[in-house]
Write a structure and sequence with these properties.
Layout (H helix, E strand, L loop, with lengths): L1 H34 L5 H4 L1 H23 L8 E2 L2 E3 L2 E3 L2 E2 L1
Antiparallel strand pairs: 1-4, 2-3
Length: 93
């Protein structure tokens, strides 16, 4: 279940979550400009958000690869074969 959530649900929901975060930050900046307040310097630069989000996505990717792993990596692949007039499908041994 968790694998389906990480491989299907997360990639499907990620753009919406990223958009909501961007929308919230843009609205906060607009409201601060209207009120005449200045945001801290790190919040005005898009590079800080890009670096933080890319590090977060890198961590999510590495953790998911480490926990899910590659199934059958230590098994050998036997290609499809033609035996007694029938095709035997390929398999992992």
């Amino acid at each position: 279940m968790i694998r389906k959530l990480l491989t299907i649900g997360l990639p499907l929901a990620a753009p919406f979550i990223i958009y909501l975060i961007w929308w919230w930050a843009a609205k906060r900046k607009t409201l601060a400009d209207i009120d005449g307040r200045k945001l801290p310097a790190w919040q005005e630069l898009p590079w800080a958000w890009l670096i933080i989000s890319s590090c977060g996505f890198l961590a999510i990717t590495l953790i998911s690869l480490a926990t899910l792993g590659i199934e059958g990596a230590d098994r050998d692949y036997v290609p499809p074969q033609f035996r007694d007039g029938k095709i035997v499908p390929g398999r992992l041994d």
